[in-house]
Amino acid sequence: MAADPKGYGQYRGGYAPAEPVYAEDDYGQHGHGQHAEDPYATDIWHPGLEEGDLPPRRSKMGRAAQKLVNSAGALTSLALIVGLGIWGYKLAVRDVTGVPVIAALEGPARVAPENPGGELAQHTGLAVNTVAALGEAAGTADELRLAPRPTGLADEDLPMAEMGTASIVPRDTLAPVEDPLPLANTGRALPEPLPDEAPEPILEAPVVTDTDAAVALALNEVFADPEAEATAAVASAAVASADVIAASVPGVVRSLRPPPRPAAALPTGVVALAAADAAAEAALPGFSDIDPSTLPAGTRLVQLGAFDTEALARDEWNRIAMDFGPLMAGKGRVIQPAESAGRAFYRLRATGFGDLADARRFCAALVGKDLHCIPVQVR
């Protein structure tokens, strides 16, 4: 038996030591004739070691699958990095290029309904509906109001088909109007304009025919100047010559007159305007004051406004009567005091209407001239 020259071991039993076994194409990165170490190979021989006890070796298919998995992971990582980069770029430029565009809808923007008036529900708001809904009748109402009377048709109300040429009358066949009734005739006469070089006219005292005109002329002394003292003296004499109440009659015999105040000269025609105003007030249509407490329930009225004092209500009535003289004829004046939220005021109303239609026609004429008018009913 040969001895080991290095002294590491000896041949026993005449057998040489075991050598590593390699696959046919499993060569390492060494020179020719050299092999890389195989972790699954062993250079130690054990007497009881069999071939099945060695660890399994990888085949070509296993190594190819491992390479495929590694390549897929690398490609996935690369795609993720590229996707994150693209997403970040789009996020940065979204405010500039991401303006939304809304496409126009086809067809009209609005379509009228087939029934613009809607569906009219019948028998709503009736007391009998409460019985079906709640199972018992509702309580008694605090206030009951009668339904208004239906508005009937007048004789001149014709269908549109019959009004074609029937309502057109030639101008030659119309009867002339002898005395039309103006609605806004105040009765004031405006003075004629004077030329630039005309001398200042001397105002002559007009002839006073009644007490109201004399009072109006005397009140104009408030705007008189010292040069018009002669005119004021004539007016005072005219007042003194008017009818005087006998001394035997109790009461005030002579009323006080306001003292004159100096002011600018009267413009041309002021005295004539004052006399015309007094004559127009005297020509107001006759009316009577009616106590509101004497009106029976159901009387038709029209309300012309609400005022802070009774005097303001009377002045408004006079103004309307001057502008609408023929329309106010036969109407009664009703001034009704009232109070709301601790504030007292006076309602100005007019009576003398046959029905609601008559009151509405009266209000239509006043509203057409920018006046307030509301049909009401005494309750």
Automatic annotation (TrEMBL):
Entry annotated with the keyword Chaperone: no
Keyword Transmembrane: yes
Key words, A-Z: Membrane, Transmembrane, Transmembrane helix
Membrane-spanning parts: 68-89
Residue stretches making up the SPOR domain: 294-379
GO terms of molecular function: peptidoglycan binding
Superkingdom of origin organism: Bacteria
Protein name: SPOR domain-containing protein
UniProt organism field: Frigidibacter albus
